Every structure is written in C-alpha cells, then in structure tokens.
C-alpha cells in the first residue's frame, strides 16, 4: 500500500467533501444508539474522525501514513477537539481497543494485497470489538473496478499544485492500478514532480460475506452507494454492516 507521502499534502484539495457527510449519515443510521467508543481505520487527514467526534462519539483514528496523521492532529486541534491518532497497520490491531464500533471507509479495504489480508483485517477488527460491536466498511463494487475505472483519467490544477490521475486494469481479477503524478510548488516557487502508484482490488459480495463469517461476524447486511438499499449490477460502492 502506498504511504501517501505526497498525496497527504493535496488529498483534501481533491477529495469530495460531501462524501464525509454521507459516510456520517450512513453510520448514524446503522450504529446502535448506546455505543460510543469508535475506531476509525484508515482515518487519513482526520475529517471523518472529527465528524464522528462532533456527533458525540469517543473517536480514535488509525492510519498507516504519519503524514496524514500529522494533518489530522493539526485539524482536530484547530477544531478544539482531543482525538487520539495512532500510526499503525489495520493488519495488526493487537495493541488497541476494545471498541464498540469500527469503521473503515473510502474503499480502504481494497488496498489489501489479497483476500487473505482482507480476512486478516476482519479478524483483527473482530478481536478488538466488544461483544455486540458493529463493524462498517465500504469497498468498490466489481462493476466499479471492472467497468468504470479502466481508462479513467482525472486532472486537477490549482495555483500551488497540479495532479494527473490515470487508472488501468490490473492482472488480478477485479483489480486496478491508479497512477498519480503530482507537481507541487516549493517555497522558492519551483514545482517538484512526484509519482505514486496505488493498487486496489475488490471481490464478489459472497467472498466478503464468507471472510466476515470466518472471522466470527454475524448478521451481515450489504447496502449500496450510501443508501439503505440492496446493491444492483451497476452499484459503485458496497457497504457492509457486520455484528460481533
């Protein structure tokens, strides 16, 4: 998984802010009312963690990238909030917890190398949840990975940075490669080029169901595109709500 070194500095500029409200609304509909201690996996620059904290939850954020977490810490302090942010890998949650709720949004599960790692994440989450705890995550659908992303191209231009984002089908089933090129302005006015490669992979819904069941989860429900409805053949994003 890429460490998002350069991505951290421009991530918020290219992220659709409206998604955070959608993730928050979906979560609030599916969180039990009496549970408050929440772990946000792949918390990035902390915007979603702040949304959850402001909604009344006791939030801990975890991310692989210290650069992302530095921004998250700064943002939370500016918002007058005290949110612990932990640098760590969701493949090893042994040192933290327990929690009532765990979320993993922005298709972060899709960055796992294979279904063995996905299953390992599910087991780690299960083990750090309290009994009757809830795990919610989203992933790209197979339709999004197979039909939408290949050939996708996105360009962003701002005064202090520019970005080119191109996506290609990868070799493994339901996998894609995102090639990102950044031009970031330095203090002397010159632009420096950075290149990153992000690889994502998804699986059939049945595969996720089996891996969740193997980890011990029950009452798994699947929804699509931030709404409380079943996925269709052209749904872009699947949401899983699982109970310990």
UniProtKB/TrEMBL annotation:
Q: Which UniProt keywords apply?
A: Methyltransferase, Transferase
- Which Pfam families does this one have? Methyltransf_25
Query: Which residue ranges run through the membrane?
Result: none
**CDD domains xrefs:** AdoMet_MTases (cd02440)
Q: Which InterPro entries match?
A: Methyltransf_25, SAM-dependent_MTases_sf
Q: Which GO terms describe its molecular function?
A: methyltransferase activity
Say which domain of life the source belongs to: Bacteria
Please cite one Gene Ontology biological process associated with this protein: methylation
Where would I find the Methyltransferase domain in this sequence? 39-133
- Quote the protein name from its UniProt record: SAM-dependent methyltransferase
Origin organism of this chain?
Answer: Streptococcus panodentis
